[in-house]
Amino acid sequence: MPERIMYVHLKTGYNTDRGPAWITRLQFSKSWQTCYFRGRTLERYSGFDSNFYDVDTGEEFWISGPKRDRTDARYSSQQPEVDEDVRAEYEAFLSGAPLPGRLPPMTTGGESGHGRSCQRANSALMSSEVGLQGQRHDSGHSEGWTDLGLRADQMGLSRSDSWAVKEGYSHG
Predict the structure, then answer these.
(1) Most buried of 6, 38, 57, 144, CB within 10 angstroms?
(2) Cα 98 from chain centre
(3) Phi, then psi, of 101 in degrees rounded to 5
(4) What are 59-87's pLDDT values in tens digits?
């Protein structure tokens, strides 16, 4: 089962972004539709302010890749508790290292970092490992990408890079 260091925020029972949050290691199913967190089984869900729910309690969670700028909470500046077993990897990530299981940052070598990230993302998204396929429509925009935001987070890409990949741009 793939494991990833992720940001997890409990949403149920708390005012906007006031619930407890963690930087922790999660195990994901092969399909990435289920994850396991501290003895809980969480299923993917499209809620108002959540993307996973606990199958036993119904509690809702927001799960995403951690952000280097520490702005993980969507509507507050609350900082997550960092689990001791991931602390060294997380602190290295904050200093610029990739998280385990993610692509390393590219050196620019004269090209824009954004362009290199887009090229790397396009390549990774089209690889059999990621297994995503887009369909072109008359509008010229890519449609049909599944879980692009989470996949971009798993690859250590920014949201602007994931947008560029989704839209089919390659800067560089």
Answers:
(1) 6
(2) 13
(3) 85, 5
(4) 999 999 999 999 998 888 889 999 999 99
DSSP string spanning 14-51? SSTT-S-EEEEEEEE-TTSSEEEETTEEEEE---SS-S
Cβ(121)–Cβ(165) below 8 Å: yes
Handedness of CA 126, 6, 53, 162 (dihedral sign): negative
**77 three-class SS:** coil
- Helix (H, G, I), strand (E, B), or coil: what is residue 83? coil
35, 28 Cβ separation under 8 angstroms: yes
Burial code of 98-131, b = ≥16 C-beta within 10 A, e = fewer? ebeebbeeeeeeeeebbbbbbbbbbebbeeeeee
* pLDDT tens readout for residues 106-130: 555 544 444 444 445 444 444 433 4
**HSE-CB for 23 with a 13 A CA cutoff:** 24
Contacts of 139 by beta carbon, 8 Å cutoff, 6+ apart: none
* pLDDT for res 104: 60
| pTM of the predicted protein model | 0.61
pLDDT at 98: 92
For residue 39, how far is the Cα from the chain centroid?
21
